[in-house]
Amino acid sequence: MARPRAFDEAKVLAATIDCFWRRGYEATSVRDLKDETGLTAASLYNAFGDKQALFRRALERYLEDGVVDRMARCERLAPRAAIETFFAEILAASLADAEHKGCLLVNTALDVAPHEPEIRAAVAATFERIEAFFRARVAAGQADGTIGRAHSPEALGRHFLGTLMGVRVLARVRPEPALLEGLVATALSLLDVEARA
Q1: How far is CA 5 from CA 30, 47, 66, in A?
Q2: What's the distance, Cα to Cα, between the start and end of the chain in Å?
Q3: Is the pLDDT of residue 166 over 80?
Q4: Which range scores top for mean pLDDT: 12-16, 17-21, 133-137?
Q5: What torsion do the CA atoms of 153, 65, 49, 19 make, to the nearest 10 degrees?
Q6: 24-64 pLDDT tens trace
Q7: Rounded to the nearest 10 degrees, what angle do helices 117-144 and 153-173 cross at?
Q8: How far is CA 20 from CA 5, 56, 84, 154, 189, in A?
Q9: DSSP letter string over 109-157?
């Protein structure tokens, strides 16, 4: 019979996320992970596998607690409000990021995904899920008349995904409210219902 774990997995994953997020995947050593979590290397590996497996698990938790939760909450709102609220929360998080860590998902796309096929697939699937969220909200808003029809749901889904990536990257080096808010406001203006003649 397996022994129960003598540590709080949620706390260990939170510490692991923070470590990878601050240092990046490549720069994070097993010693760093031991120091952050308070576990031995053997305990970490027994519980989670190797460094890549631990990173994948940390990224999954980050996504579950972040973008996946945000989409689920926003999906309960009216279509246009869902998109606006999603971006309002992203702006708030980006502007409150005093350490300029950015988004772990975006950082992973830039730093880890090019070299790790499994992680690249997970990142791509998440980007597709975000795009699908925007696309569905646009389609619903066009159906109920609260979102204009000048652009297709597919085009706006891709555009909003690109806007999201741009905001999260810019926030790391130019976390200026006017810049980030202006970028989002311009994107959201594409939702406007066309004036009738």
Answers
A1: 20, 8, 26
A2: 75
A3: yes
A4: 133-137
A5: 110
A6: 888 998 889 989 888 888 888 888 888 888 899 999 999 99
A7: 120
A8: 23, 11, 30, 33, 36
A9: HHHTTTT-HHHHHHHHHHHHHHHHHHHHHHHHHHHHTSS-SSS-HHHHH
What per-residue confidence (pLDDT) applies to 42?
85
Our CA dihedral for 150, 188, 133, 72, rounded to 10 degrees, sits at: -140
Q: Looking at the predicted structure, is the pLDDT value of residue 196 above 70?
A: no
- Residue where the block lists tokens 């409150």: 96
**pTM for the model:** 0.89
Q: Cα–Cα distances in Å, from 28 out to 85, 92, 108, 131?
A: 34, 27, 13, 30
Query: pLDDT tens for residues 104-126?
Result: 999 999 998 888 899 999 999 99
Report the b/e string of 146-167 with b at 16+ CB within 10 A: ebbeebebeebbebbbebbbeb
CA nearest neighbour of 171 among 82, 111, 90: 90
CB 148 within 8 A of CB 142: yes
Structure-token pair, residue 192: 């406007």
**Identity of the residue numbered 113:** A
Task: Provide the token pair at 43.
Answer: 């305990």
pLDDT at res. 197:
43
Q: Of 118, 96, 108, 126, which Cα lies nearest the Cα of 23?
A: 108
